[in-house]
Write a structure and sequence with these properties.
six-stranded mixed β-sheet, single chain, Aminopeptidase, alpha+beta, 156 residues, 5 helices, 33% helix, binds coenzyme A
Amino acid sequence: MGPDGWERVRAIRLRALREDPDAFGTTLAQDAVRPPEVWRERLAGGATATFLVRSAGADVGLAVGSPFRGREGAAGLFAMWVAPEARGKGVGDRLVEAVVLWARSIGYERVLLEVADENAAAIKLYERHGFAPTGRTGTLPAPRTHVREHERCLEL
Ligand SMILES: CC(C)(COP(=O)(O)OP(=O)(O)OC[C@H]1O[C@@H](n2cnc3c(N)ncnc32)[C@H](O)[C@@H]1OP(=O)(O)O)[C@@H](O)C(=O)NCCC(=O)NCCS
């Protein structure tokens, strides 16, 4: 997606944060107040790549590839979300593939992500694509520190 698609990206991102808040570190309150310039800037072709899946005229999937802060040579897979009405049909597979291809094309050495320990559907998806646990653990930011996460890595 490029800058002109910012309203579509914002709409699906806010829906994701509203419907599955514990899957993400960012909150709905944080993203809902970001001005249009911030959304456009993120889509302007810098270090971040944003992918949408559209099906039957509706946006049903979102994923973002971006540098993984503080980790040399690593891209991050972020914001992965598939609308409930489109789950279990391989949309998640297409999104993972898109971010991995993007990371390879830039020359990253690995892709990292963080997934909540309770999120069986996402863990299964990432395992299928070869993402293995690194042993690093963490939690979502306060007040959601009860949501524990494991980091996973795909070496490219
Ligand atoms: C995790 C998620 C992205 C998977 O998307 P998806 O397109 O359904 O992915 P897949 O089609 O590969 O299905 C993944 C698994 O979901 C489960 N699943 C199957 N049908 C499903 C349905 N109708 N509804 C929910 N889950 C279903 C299955 O375990 C499936 O694996 P399997 O088909 O190999 O048995 C999606 O469930 C989602 O957006 N969840 C909420 C947000 C989230 O957790 N994001 C990840 C943050 S790290």
